[in-house]
Specification:
The complex is a heterodimer of chains A (about 190) and B (about 240). Chain A is an all-alpha fold and about 190 residues long. Chain A has ten helices and no strands. Chain A folds into two domains: about 100 residues, Rna Polymerase Sigma Factor, Chain: A (Orthogonal Bundle), CATH 1.10.1740.10; about 90 residues, Winged helix-like DNA-binding domain superfamily/Winged helix DNA-binding domain (Arc Repressor Mutant, subunit A), CATH 1.10.10.10. Chain A is globular. By secondary structure, chain B is an alpha+beta fold. Chain B has two domains: about 55 residues, no CATH class; about 150 residues, no CATH class. An eight-stranded antiparallel beta sheet of chain B has the order 5-4-7-8-1-2-3-6, with helices on both faces. In chain B, strand 7 and strand 8 form a beta hairpin. The longest helix of chain B is centred in the N-terminal third of the chain and has 19 residues. Classes of the chains: A mainly alpha (about 190), B alpha+beta (about 240). Chains A and B meet through helix 1, helix 2, helix 3, helix 4 and helix 6 of A and helix 2, helix 4, helix 5 and strand 7 of B.
Chain lengths: ~190, ~240
């Protein structure tokens, strides 16, 4: 199944789930649970806790499917956002200590995480399908790019990023604000 | 400038939407932001735009097989408790006071609709429709009456007179099959404001439905306006097949 077909199938499932069609919910789970579990594990490394978050996320998908607006955007990004929010809530409610996040994962130079390394590598093939975001991320300065991607993948808060990178909180916020603004301008250009 | 007016400024909206999608808002700020989403459609549009923009990163996350118990737990969440009757399960979907209100509505409707003579059929199926998002009281009841011959069964909407009726232009009604989840169109909802006759297929779709759903547009996946569990109130007469 191509990526486009896969996303269309997710749209179809969500439309059916809005009508409380349980087989569609099961199909959605088969289609997306592996990806979502992988996504959660980046934020909540503990496998048991991550499994709890996954269950919570699907419960919310079932309960809140009516809130999904297919006229505004895709179902897969909506599902990812809902899932990331659940994962971020979980780590923040369990008071994750900043030192629990390995500095190596958020430094482009020493990134121990394959995903981050590939995402920030100019020559990576990963971005072939997503030329716009890739091009625009490469246009912004290294520091804002690194913190934006790290915040997104690992669900790190401003203060967690500040501690990890040993930068003042104000500097971190400024990097993110400026980076997002530049990203917006580039993607809209 | 009031807090609410600040969200009219595109640059503030865009900045907040981006930080929301990125996940850097504090829990408290995020809760407040989510409550604002419902009142500021532009804010919601900005959030969807940022979700789309950043999502390529999620596309590249490696899949990891989740533990089997996650799906087992989800399945048991979806299954109704075996000891419960269908009636109890359906009523359980309404909150206590909503259930009480709906019961009062059904009883008063039943009294009103019960035949003065035996020629008039009582209500066969009834759905107390709740708005999406929910309103303090259900806004309408949809009732179906079995006719004395195929094609003579009728569908009727009764507005809750304590609430303002809303525009039903472009809203279609669907019956959801209780076993398969299949949706069967029951046509434009507004047609039922004037009692209308049901085809045999429509009658059977109501008979086999767990729920009626009214959505905007002609397709079943449109935004849901109203929905309600479909209750059987009188015995089905197999000799009169709709």
């Amino acid at each position: 199944m191509s990526s486009e077909q896969w996303k269309q199938q997710i749209e179809y499932c969500l439309a059916q789930i809005k009508l409380r069609h349980q087989p569609a919910f099961e199909e959605l789970y088969q289609l997306t649970s592996g990806k979502l579990y992988g996504l959660i594990l980046k934020i909540v490394p503990d496998k048991e806790l991550a499994a709890d978050v996954l269950q919570e996320a699907y419960t919310k998908i079932w309960m809140n499917s009516e809130r999904y607006r297919h006229d505004l955007g895709g179902g897969w990004p909506w599902i990812c956002q809902l899932t990331r929010n659940c994962a971020i809530d979980r780590v923040r409610s369990s008071s994750r200590q900043p030192e629990q996040v390995d500095i190596a994962v958020i430094d482009e130079e020493t990134a121990s995480d394959d995903l981050l390394r590939e995402l920030t590598d100019d020559s990576s093939n990963l971005w072939l399908q997503h030329h716009d975001l890739s091009r625009c991320l490469q246009k912004i300065r290294k520091e804002p790019r690194s913190v934006i991607i790290s915040a997104y993948i690992y669900g790190l808060s401003h203060s967690e990023l500040a501690i990890q990178l040993q930068k003042p909180l104000g500097t971190l916020k400024s990097w993110i604000r400026r980076g997002l603004k530049e990203l917006h301008q580039c993607l809209e250009a | 400038m009031s807090r609410s007016l600040r969200y009219l400024k595109p640059e503030i909206r865009d900045h907040l939407a981006a930080q929301y999608v990125l996940g850097t808002l504090s829990s408290r700020t995020r809760q407040r932001f989510e409550s604002l989403l419902h009142n500021h459609p532009e804010l919601e549009t900005d959030v969807y735009r940022w979700q789309q923009r950043m999502n390529p990163i999620n596309d590249h996350t490696k899949a990891v097989k989740p533990p089997a118990h996650v799906w087992r737990n989800l399945q048991s969440m979806l299954k109704p408790a075996p000891a419960e009757s269908t009636w109890k399960r359906l009523w359980g979907q309404l909150s206590l006071w909503q259930g009480g209100f709906a019961l009062a509505m059904i009883l008063s409707l039943s009294l009103w609709l019960l035949p003065a003579d035996n020629k008039v059929q009582p209500v066969s199926y009834l759905a107390v429709m709740q708005s999406n998002p929910p309103t303090p009281e259900p806004p309408m009841v949809i009732s179906a009456y079995q006719g004395d011959a195929p094609g003579r069964s009728r569908l009727h909407i009764q507005w809750n007179r304590r609430m303002a009726s809303s525009d039903l232009e472009g809203v279609s009604l669907w019956a959801i099959n209780r076993d398969t989840g299949k949706q069967t169109s029951l046509g434009d909802l507004k047609l039922a404001l004037e009692t209308r006759l049901l085809t045999k297929q429509e009658w059977l779709a109501i008979k086999d439905s767990s729920e009626l759903v009214a959505v905007e547009g002609d397709l079943p996946d449109g935004p849901v306006r109203f929905r309600g569990p479909c209750l059987q109130l009188s015995e089905w007469q197999p000799s009169n097949r709709g």
